[in-house]
Each structure stands twice: as C-alpha cells, then as structure tokens.
Design brief:
Blueprint: H1 25-38, H2 43-66, H3 72-106, H4 110-115, E1 119-126, E2 131-132, E3 137-138, E4 141-142, E5 146-158, E6 164-175, E7 202-210, E8 221-225, E9 232-235, H5 239-254, H6 260-271, H7 279-287, H8 298-309, H9 323-326, H10 331-348, H11 353-371, H12 377-391, H13 399-424, H14 429-453, E10 455-457, H15 460-484, H16 489-515, E11 520-522, H17 526-547, H18 551-566, H19 569-576, E12 585-587, E13 596-599, E14 605-608, H20 614-624, E15 628-629, E16 632-634, H21 639-642, H22 645-649, E17 653-654, E18 657-659, H23 666-678, E19 683-685, E20 691-694, E21 697-703, E22 725-730, E23 733-737, H24 743-751, E24 763-765, H25 776-782, E25 786-789, H26 802-810, E26 814-817, H27 818-821, E27 824-829, E28 832-837
Parallel strand pairs: 6-8, 14-16, 15-17, 16-18, 18-19, 23-24, 24-25, 25-26
Antiparallel strand pairs: 1-5, 1-7, 2-5, 3-4, 5-6, 7-8, 7-9, 10-11, 12-13, 12-27, 13-14, 20-21, 21-22, 22-23, 27-28
Helix pairs in contact: 1-3, 1-12, 2-3, 3-12, 5-15, 5-16, 6-15, 6-16, 7-16, 8-10, 8-11, 8-15, 11-12, 11-13, 12-13, 13-14, 14-15, 14-17, 15-16
C-alpha cells in the first residue's frame, strides 16, 4: 500500500511529522553546562547548588499540582513549570555527579605525591587500549616515542609510607627505545609489549608521579615508568576483554597482507585500532576533516544496523528490507538482535566513554531507521546527552563529544531542510541528501574544529562525500572479517581483501585532499575565531540560498573555489607572481629546518634537505610546480633535515636519494632507508670531488671526504660536521650550501683542495640556521653577496645568532631569513643576484 502511494520509500509519513519536541533539550543543556563548570568546584559549592536547585524544583512541582485542575491556560503554565523543574533537577544531578567524579581526582595520597614528584610502586588496572605517541621533531632529533596507558591506581606504595588501597585514575607513560622517527610505529617501538596490554589487565609499575599537564582532565597524575622492559603483570584481563582482544588481533592478522594504507586504515575504520596509522596519513585525515573515520563513531554502528533493518523509515512497514525480513525475523526479534549487535559493538570497541558516546549516537540513528519520525529524534538525542553527561561528567569538556552531538543535531535539523531545498531545485534525491548531510555537519562542526586546529578545510565537504561512498562497504566487509577471523582465517583474509579496495579509496581521498595547496586556510584560533567562522558560515548559507536560483552563477562560484583549492602553478604564477620567472634556487620556509630547491628545468628540481615536516615542504614544491626530482640530497640525518622526506616524495617522480656517509643518528638513518625502500628509490653516498649536472644546474660536492667514517680524520663531533656541502652553478651564479657544518669541519674545508673554489660566491646558505658556531675565516673567504638563513620563528636556540648576522654583514652580505621574510627565491644570471620573497 505504501509502495503504491507514489511517495519515495523511506520518507516519513505526513501524520508522523509535527513540530519538534524540544522539552528535553533545556535539561540536557543545563546538565552539560553544570557538569563542565563544577568538575573543579569545591564540595561546599556543589552541595549548595544541588540543595538550592532541588528546593526550587520541589516548590515548582508543588505549585503545579495545586493548579493542575484550573483549566487549559494553567496547564500550559504547568508545562512551563515542569520544564523549569526538569532543568533544576538536571542541574542538581549533574552537579552531584560532577562533584563525585571530581572528588575522585583529589582524594587519596596520589595527588599529593604527584605534587611532590614522588617515586612510587603502584598496582594499576589498564582501562583503555595503550597507544603510541605521535613522533615529534625537537631540534635536530625526533623525540623518543612513548606508550601511553590510561589506568586506575588500585594500590600505591612510596618511600617512608605504607601500602594504601585507592581508586585513582592516572596516565602511565613508558618511553620505548630510541626510535622516534616518523613512521616508526611498526618498528622497534611498535613491537613494545606494552602495546599488547588489554583493558582490565593489572600491572605493578615503579615510576615517578607528576601532576597532569592540563587542569580539569580526567586523570589525577602522570606516572612515568623508568623500567622500559616488559610490564609486570599481576592480574590477567577479564574473559570478555580477552575475547574482544582475540577478535581485534584476528582482524589485524587478516589485514597483514593488504597494501599499506588499507592495512593501516581498516582496523581503525572497524574497531578504532589506529596503531598502524602513519603520521602522514593521520595528518591527511585531519587536514580533510575525515578524522572521524579513524575513530569509533556512531556511523560504524549505524551502518551495521542499517544492514539489518534496511532503508530509513521501513522497519515498521510491509515492504521493509534488510537482512532481518529476508530471514523471516519479527520486529521484536529484530529489535533484540539490534540490541545484541550494539552490545557486541561496545564490547569489541571497548566500553570507554568515546565508544559509549558512539553507541548512544548510533542509537539515535537506529531510531531514525526504525521509525522515520524526525519529531522523536531530538528528544532521543537530548536524552542520550543527558544520560551520558550524568554517567561521565568529563564528557562535558570533551571536544569529541561536542562534535558528535553537533553533527548528529545537524543531521536531524538542518540536513532535512537543506535536502528538501535542493530537491525543489531539481537536484536528484540521493545526491541532495548526501550534500545536505555533509554540508550541515561541516557547517556546525567547523567552528569547533577551528578552535582546535586554527585552520579551516575547504575540501572537507567533497572529501566526506567521496569517502562516504566507500565507508559503508569497507565497514561491512571489515566487520565480517572481524567475525570470521577466529574460526575461518582464510575467509577473513578474503573479506579483508574485499574491504581493502574501499578502505584504500578512503585513504586516497584523504591524501589527495590534503595534498591540494589551497585545501585549507589558516584561521584565528580560540573561541573568538570560532565566533567569526560561525558568522562567516551563516553569511555563506544565506548567500548560497540566493545562488541556488542561478545555476550559471553557482557554476562560476564553484569553478572559482576549485581554482582556489587546486591552485594550478601556471595560474598562480600569473596572479601572485610566484615563483618569479627564471628562479635559480628557492629556500623554502619549513620552520626550524632546511629545505632548498635548485631549478633544473620545467617542473624539475633538485631538492637539498626536506625540513622537519612533510606538509610544509610538499606545499613549497607544489607552489613551485615541481613534479620531477632527479635527485634528493640529504646533507645529514638530523630530523630537521630529513623528517619531511615523505612530503618531498609524495606524488613526484624521484630518481635517487644521496646522503652523507656518516650514518648517525641511527633512527633517522633507518627512517630514510624505509622511505626509500617503500618507493624503490636507490640510495647513494656523496663524496668530495663528485660532480653532477641536471638541466641548467650543475654542482660539485666539496665535503665530506670519500671513504668510511675514519676518512674524516678525527671523529666528527656529530652528524653536523659530516654534512654534504655543495657548490652550485646556475646561469653564472655560484651558490654555496653548507648544510650544518660547524667550525671544525669549516676549518677543515678551508684546508681541503676545494678551498680555491670558495672565494667570492654569490649566494651562501648559512650553516646550521645561522648559529653562533661559525668559523670567521670561512665567512671572510666566501664573502657572499647574499646570505640566506633557514630558521623557525621564535625558536628556542636563538638562531640566527646576532654575532653571525653581524659577521656576514661585515663581509658585505645582505642577510635574509625565512622566519621573517618567508620563502626566498634567488633569481638573476652572470653575477647579478636578485631575491624575491613569498
């Protein structure tokens, strides 16, 4: 009968729709705000607030009962009093819950021991899956990676004290070896036994306590464990966690043979296991606002339940679809099975607050699938928010919780209206729904994302639309592989292979979107920036409504946005004048590090060093239009020169990578070798006397001497003195690139056979970011006309040193630096030097 009505399947019945029921929204918001404000409040304030709210609520309810029979007008007032009373009761309950949870962080000996930085021995129970910290470049090295374990202290013992039983949440941090290089998650650090711990496992650890870095967090202290060996397990995990652990391990095993991105992404897409996600892939998902794909979210559960129930709004109709009716299951049995799937989802993905939040949001979506009644969904969302905040008040301060609620609310309120408006303008129904959902979620979530990242993505909506095509099949096949892995591993591997295609598509979308030079714009951080972005969003929506009636104007605006995002180098050069015609060398602004490009023909360049961050050097090369790199020269293996190598290699043809023969530090050497092997790029060693030419540029290696490390003479103080030093010639310009050479090697260079080539160069790339460690004799001999310093703004090292700058200027050089002048391009020919800044 419904099918014959001519309405689109899944559309809500007209009698099921009506004004939105917003009565539960004020109590939910009141509980949310109260929990956020009272987590740190003294007990007296919490008690007083709860007593006052309960007293006023009792008075209001008593007044309502006495006036209940006075007529319709009083009844309407009674509803108002009931709403106010509900707000007061929610406020009182949230204050009590937040007060109790906050007290857990302040009671017992652990907080006081943390303030004294005491060394303790503690029995702790793991409460969440351990995770590996993201590699960070600090100075010239990548900081060692650590395993972070959320846990609860059950007993603590300290010097001069006794053993005390407690229940205090803490964060356990264990440094796992030296390998802090990017992409090392599957190296020595990734094999740490600490990463294999399951929730509910009990450990005995010895370490130093410290206060948490951020006040108001859900932990009372940080435990820095000194012993890096295998953890001392004193209690096995629960049977349920062992079962969930076997399922997760089976999924990892089933994905072992998949291509890199799919192998990393699929466990994260299915159960939130992100251990294999590389830093550059993680950054790509953040840049395109696809990070929700890597986290356990309500959409994961919704997809599985939709497979069971069928399309929206058909669960209670004769023509309902999905697996359940095909199996002959009744509605009641289907509901029970949906509940079992939800419980299984929570178990496998861990019952921590983020998963419970996802289950609650998935439950709201389940209600939409089952009934198609939008009118009942806002109360369901408000109820979920209220119960979750009362259960875990720390969610009130969680940005992830805020984003989930905003996205779900936008899908329930804005998306249907926007979809209807698009359909009225003859946009196909499914496309209209997809556009409206992605646009509404982005519009309400973008201000919060701007607070966190001080950046606005211009490609978030198209990337989410394209990724959405693949998320559902990847999730379905992934969960099927998860279920089959413990009993039929070959079948699980086949299912994982099927899931790898859509998963690889999602990763490719993220990488492509992040690689677009105009994919994001910097934005003021903080809540003022969020307010500004909110105003801009409202203005864009209002203008967009007008533009929808003018298709040609919409197309023109879309084309302009596309050009702004893609920024084709020829067009960019015409509009901005960058890069300047005839550029010979560009010193990229990559922060506290080095990255230079030598022009070697149209779209071709020789790259010298890669800087500390892939995104920055990739953006610089894109703006220069570099698509082919015959050679990458890495002057030495410090992280501020090699950590950005993935950005250099991304989407470009690279012939070879040349490095110094002094292979220190070993973690960065291993990183470079991994990146080269992953792309089948040969590695070579530079040695003094070597000469090469590509296109219109040729160069000669002046340092280091050839042969093994002993050929350097006395052992160098470190990798800096083994830096590859190049003398570059391009159209009559002579440019000297010193890497990070320090005075001992600089003086040795003056005594080498190459000394005769050093006099009177046109351009000098100042050694070691302009540090104070320079040989004055080398500066006098070189006497550059232009000195370029690659340095990060507000760096803690004082680079460039005032004395170095003064010495260069005394030698007749014009000194420019990337922290103040930005990316620098050298132009000119036959001794005439000019420079342009971007």
């Amino acid at each position: 009968m419904h099918a014959a009505s001519g309405k689109r399947l899944g559309a809500a019945h007209p009698r099921q729709e009506g004004p939105a029921d917003l009565r539960l929204v004020p109590p939910a918001l009141a509980a949310w705000a109260t929990a956020a404000l009272t987590l740190d409040a003294p007990p007296g304030v919490v008690t007083g607030l709860a007593v006052v709210c309960l007293g006023v609520a009792a008075v209001l309810m008593a007044v309502r009962r006495r006036g209940a029979g006075d007529g319709p007008g009083v009844r309407r007032k009674g509803w108002t009093r009931a709403t106010v009373a509900a707000v007061l009761l929610s406020t009182a309950t949230a204050a009590v819950s937040a007060g109790l949870h906050g007290a857990d962080l302040r009671q017992g000996p652990v907080p006081e021991l943390a303030r004294r930085y005491a060394t303790v021995t503690a029995d702790v129970e793991v409460t969440a899956d351990p995770r590996l910290t993201r590699p960070r470049v600090t100075g010239d090295r990548a900081a060692p990676q650590s395993v972070v374990v959320e846990a609860q202290v059950r007993a603590v013992e300290w010097a001069g004290g006794q053993r005390v039983a407690v229940r205090t949440p803490v964060l356990v941090i264990v440094t796992v070896g030296r390998d802090g290089s990017p992409g090392a998650a599957e190296g020595a650090a990734g094999r740490s036994p600490w990463l294999g711990l399951l929730p509910s496992t009990r450990l005995r650890v010895t370490g130093r306590l410290a206060p948490p870095a951020v006040g108001g967090d859900r932990i009372a202290a940080v435990v820095r464990v000194r012993d890096r060996a295998a953890p001392r397990i004193v209690g096995k995990p629960s049977a349920a966690q062992r079962f969930a652990g076997r399922l997760r391990a089976g999924l990892r095993e089933a994905t072992d043979g998949l291509p890199g991105d799919a192998r990393a992404l699929l466990p994260g897409l299915v159960v939130g296991d992100t251990a294999r996600i590389t830093p550059e892939l993680d950054e790509a998902f953040k840049e395109t606002d696809l990070a929700h794909v890597l986290a356990v979210s309500g959409s994961n559960l919704t997809i599985i339940l939709a497979l069971l129930l069928g399309p929206p709004g058909l669960a209670q109709r004769v023509e309902r679809r999905g697996v359940a009716p095909r199996l002959g299951l009744t509605l009641r049995t289907t509901a029970v099975l949906g509940g079992v799937l939800t419980l299984g989802f929570v178990l496998v993905c861990r019952p921590d607050p983020s998963v419970l939040r996802a289950a609650a949001c998935g439950g709201v979506a389940l209600l939409a699938l089952a009934t198609g009644r939008r009118r009942s969904l806002l109360p369901a969302l408000a109820t979920a928010v209220l119960l979750l905040v009362l259960y875990d008040p720390f969610l009130a301060r969680s940005y992830g919780f805020l984003l989930s609620v905003l996205a779900t609310g936008a899908l329930l309120t804005l998306a249907p209206r926007w979809s209807a408006a698009l359909r009225r303008r003859r946009v196909p129904a499914r496309l209209a729904e997809a556009l409206a959902a992605a646009g509404a979620a982005q519009a309400v979530c973008a201000p919060v994302v701007a607070v966190l990242s001080a950046r606005v993505s211009l490609v978030a909506v198209p990337c989410n639309l394209l990724a959405e095509l693949a998320v559902a099949p990847a999730t379905v096949f992934g969960f099927a592989a998860l279920a089959c892995a413990p009993v039929m591993m070959p079948v699980a591997k086949a299912l994982a292979w099927c899931a790898s295609w859509p998963a690889g598509w999602v990763a490719a979308i993220a990488r492509a979107g992040a690689g677009l030079p105009g994919g994001g714009v910097d934005w003021p951080g903080g809540w003022w920036g969020a307010l500004l972005l909110g105003c801009v969003t409202v203005a864009v929506v209002l203008v967009g409504r007008r533009l929808l009636g003018h298709p040609w104007l919409c197309g023109a605006c879309g084309l302009l946005l596309l050009l702004a995002v893609v920024q084709p180098p020829p067009l960019t050069r015409v509009i901005t004048g960058w890069p300047p015609p005839g550029w010979r060398m560009v010193m990229c602004d990559v922060g506290q590090g080095d990255a230079a490009v030598l022009a070697a023909g149209a779209g071709t360049g020789v790259v010298v060093d890669a800087g500390p961050e892939p995104r920055l050097v990739d953006r610089c090369l894109h703006r220069l239009g570099i698509t082919r790199i015959p050679l990458v020269v890495l002057t030495h293996f410090h992280a501020d020169h090699v950590a950005g190598l993935p950005g250099v290699l991304h989407g470009r043809q690279v012939g070879a990578i040349e490095t110094t023969g002094f292979e220190e530090p070993p973690d960065q050497v291993a990183f470079v070798r991994r990146e080269a092997a992953r792309r089948n790029i040969p590695l070579t060693r530079a040695a003094a006397g070597e000469r090469q030419r590509v296109g219109g540029v040729d160069w000669q290696v002046l340092w280091p001497p050839g042969g093994p490390a002993a050929a350097f003479g006395p052992a160098p103080d470190g990798p800096n003195d083994a830096s590859v030093t190049l003398l570059v010639r391009s159209r009559g310009l002579r440019m000297l690139l010193l890497g990070d050479l320090e005075p001992p090697a600089q003086r040795a260079l003056l005594r080498s056979p190459a000394a005769a080539l050093l006099a009177g160069v046109d351009v000098l790339k100042v050694a070691h970011h302009g540090s104070a460690y320079q040989d004055p004799g080398l500066i006098r001999v070189v006497a550059p006309r232009l000195a370029l310093v690659s340095v990060g703004a507000d760096n803690p090292y004082g680079h460039p040193a005032p004395g170095t700058v003064a010495a260069l200027r005394a030698a007749g050089a014009v000194v420019l630096r990337t922290d103040r002048d930005g990316t620098l391009a050298v132009t000119g020919a036959d001794g005439r030097v000019r420079v342009a800044a971007d």
